[in-house]
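tool=predict chain=A
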Amino acid sequence: MEDLPLNDLDAFTAIARERSFRAAARKRGVSASSLSDSLRRLEERVGVRLLNRTTRSVTPTEAGERLLERLAPALGEVSEALQQLDTFRDSPSGTLRLNVPTIAVRLFLPDLANRFLKRYPQISLEIVGEDSFVNVLAAGYDAGIRYDERLERDMIAVPIGPRRQRYVTAAAPDYLARRGVPKHPRDLLEHDCVRHRFLSGTALTWEFERGDETLMITPKGPIIANAIDMEVSAAVAGLGIIRTFEEVVSPAIETGALTPILEEWVSEFSGPFLYYAGRKHLPPALRAFVDFVKGQRVKGG
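tool=predict ok
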């Protein structure tokens, strides 16, 4: 076993994480057939099936799950050791993988990422925007962006993006003319609402605050999506009331396409954080990004 090719182990890890040969191949910049060959060699060498493959799915076997659990941190250590060689270069290089919520991609990350890459042209930035809140380390990412309630205790958090944000409620003038204007959050139970659902399947509960009073509402309505543009479009079309980040609906409010309601029930909360494992030696690309974020005054921050 001591002569197992590292590339074959890395290929297995990539396929197991992505649950897809094609997705893993795209991420590695290789062909799906080469990954298939690597997996075949590895399974022949260890004498155990590691992945169950059908035409529709790829899932780890029990043996594969156990190997992945032990192998992923070890390969991470190898990758980090190799990346430490970048400290001998004139400037940091390598690939930095970030997992972030889609709202960060929409509101502030593009400008920040563009300025970072202009300063460090030898770094490659890989960003995955999703709202499933995966374990970034187990999924192979270097760092993630999360809000307060999503931070893990063993991670280091660095403020990034706007430091205070607000949730506002709004509806199209046509909808309000037809259905009336809600005076209290409880009135929303009698209205159509445009709802957001995370990729995990969890639907977003609406939380309202006024002074010391907090109220949780589970709205109903004709549409539920995990795409904010679709949600705003539905609200503008008069299909229901929307409650989301102020920055998202501000353009429609400014043009009159949406009208703010329940304004005394606007919820304000802390902005997002860049978070990563508190390792003694960070990969050079991650260290450069952390230092860059700390030194920036991001718009709205």
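Residues 181 and 187 are 9 Å apart (CA to CA). The longest strand covers residues 164-171.
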